[in-house]
Amino acid sequence: MNYLIETIGCQMNMCESDVLSSVFSAYGASKVSSLSDADVAILNTCSVRAQAEQKAFSYLGRIKEFKQKNPDIKVVVIGCMAERLGSKIKKRFNSVDLIIGAKDIDNAALRIMDLFHMSDFAKKVNSEIKSEVTRYVTIMKGCDNYCSYCTVPFVRGKEISVNFEKIVNKCSSMVKNGAREITLLGQNVNSYKYEDVNFAALIKKVATIENLKRIRFMTNHPKDLSDDLIKIMATEPKVCSHIHLPMQSASDKILKAMNRKYSHEHYLKLIKKLRAAIPAISVTTDIIVGFPGETDEDFEDTLEAVKTIKFDGLYVFKYSPRPNTKASGMIDDVPLQEKKRRHAVILEEANKISIEIVSEIIGSTQQVLVEKIKNGIIKARTRGGRKVFAKGDKEEYLGKHINVNIKEAKVNSLFGNII
Ligand code: 5AD
Ligand code: SF4
After folding, report:
1. Domains defined along the chain, listed by start
2. Which ligand 2 atom is the nearest neighbour of the CA of 144?
3. Dihedral sign, CA of 344, 350, 355, 358?
4. Where are the beta strands (DSSP E) in 123-230?
5. Quick check: pTM over 0.70?
């Protein structure tokens, strides 16, 4: 089976596509990068914003055309949009052979291979034959927070934490197969709880795995970020100094309407605590502009917060109403033009700040973990999560910490020389 897999959306989707690929390769299937080489095209979808769904529809449109000339190709849609719109997708695109929603994702690999009568071929799967340096592990599924704009609780269901023993075993087996950095994933990792093990305790357990060099995690919720976690970030050398902490807005009125359950003051306190405990920490965030009822003043508060906090990176989104959510019943009263303006203003400010931050990195020496080596260039990451490129082709660097002296800095990547 030659498979093509296209992934739209968050790290969770990336992780789930990655798991599929490793199961497939254990069964001898090959990943391809063009439709003409594929026996099956898999689309992993996202429902968080309307734009992500439109992207999936246009991709399916292209596949439909391809299938008219190449009727043997199988088409599979998985993930959040498959969960939310399964039968509608099938109605609109008769080219789609199989739909597997986000809640059934655990069975996806076998169901896809069933299309090719492959799952009898070898029942025992070693899903850990991949040898990438950086891997992702899902530690919890679903979400119970019901932020008023968000579709995730509807498409991914209730929050369930995975047994910590399973997580540690999975991480250990990945490390045995070459992984050196693991990112623990969940919609709100701060509320991880299995029996008496909370998130900070889970990190401690994962950190005991020999040969594992780095631990990352995402995503966090400001209402649940604990002092315990800050402490472990400050004291456990394997935990990278990066936190993605979605702020969404700096207006208390909007935060309340979003059902975020924290005030802006609380958010600022967290940033202060984090920076005091981990001076080198890099902080990234998500912001929504144009939420229902967001006035100019509310927006100015958010812009001011962006200027004072100086995030190392941020994602900004124009609010779009999602079905079933509480906010979809509110009047979407910020005109699209104004949402676009606010979006552009935040981005411009964020870019200015990024340029300031990265220009300070020039001349410094950064400890990086080497993730890939290709055509004489190593690709690595700083502890804060910035991409670094340097000349070097020694295979032995792969998966190792090395020091790079930074010579040039762009907003999204740094360039330097190995020391
Ligand atoms: N409209 C705009 N942005 C949204 N996000 C989630 N739902 C919506 C929506 N309906 C953003 C939030 C979240 C990120 C993953 O996507 O900022 O943190
Ligand atoms: Fe959505 Fe809020 Fe849950 Fe994040 S915490 S997945 S924004 S409901």
Report:
1. 2-114 (3.40.50.12160), 130-240 (3.30.750.210), 273-359 (3.30.750.200), 365-418 (2.40.50.140)
2. 3
3. negative
4. 134-138, 140-141, 160-161, 181-185, 193-194, 197-198, 214-218
5. yes
Whole-number Å distance, alpha carbon 260 to ligand 1 midpoint, is: 12
Residue nearest to atom 18 of ligand 1 (CA): 286
Across residues 228-252, what is the average pLDDT? Answer: 97
> Does the structure show a pLDDT above 80 at 385?
yes
pLDDT at 128 over 50: no
Decide whether any atom of ligand 1 lies within 6 Å of the 320 Cβ. yes
| Ligand 2 pocket mutation pick from 46, 80, 145 by most atoms within 8 angstroms of CB | 145
Return mean pLDDT, the chain. 93
**pLDDT at position 122:** 54
Kindly give the interhelix angle for 227-235 and 264-277, rounded to the nearest 10 degrees: 20
Q: Closest ligand to 343 CA? A: 1
Specify the pairing of strand 377-382 against strand 387-391: antiparallel
Radius of gyration of the chain (CA): 22
Average pLDDT, stretch 231-256? 97
Judging by beta carbons within 10 Å of its beta carbon (0-12, 13-18, 19+), is residue 227 exposed, middle or buried? exposed
Specify the residue with its C-alpha closest to ligand 2, atom 1.
Answer: 150
pLDDT in tens, 142-173: 999 999 999 999 999 999 999 999 999 999 99
Q: Would you tell me how many other CB atoms lie within 10 Å of the CB of residue 416?
A: 24
Q: Does ligand 1 come within 6 angstroms of the Cβ of 161?
A: no
Q: Which residues pair with 406 in a beta bridge?
A: 416
Whether the Cβ atoms of residue 243 and residue 283 lie closer than 8 Å to each other:
yes
Distance (Å) from CA 7 to ligand 2 centroid: 20
Residue carrying structure tokens 């790290």 = 11
What span, in angstroms and rounded, lies between the C-alpha atoms of 74 and 97? 6
**pLDDT at residue 369 tops 80:** yes
Does the pLDDT of residue 272 top 70, yes or no? Answer: yes
Residue 108 — pLDDT band, cuts 50, 70, 90?
A: very high
Atom of ligand 2 nearest to the CA of 259: 2
